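Give me structure tokens for this 91-residue protein.
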Amino acid sequence: MLGLLLRQTNYQDIQHRAYAIDFSAGTAIHEHNVQNVLIVYKLLQPLFVQMQFVTQEELDRLYEQMEKEIQTEEFCGIDYYLTVYGRKPEE
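Here you go.
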């Protein structure tokens, strides 16, 4: 999909790279990523409530559960990223 958008805007030599970052308990990036996950979850809550996906009470309960589980020694987590890039020809 992103490659299509780049082609539609005349980019050439379009390439992509996939990445997986392990942020399980005990990894160097664990605490940093835990803070990011918790912040993003809080920031998305108003949208979820507004779209009536879930109540604020349920989100609060899930947040508490997530906060506990994500900081246990058994926690395993992987973030997946996709980078898509190309070259715009000189005009």
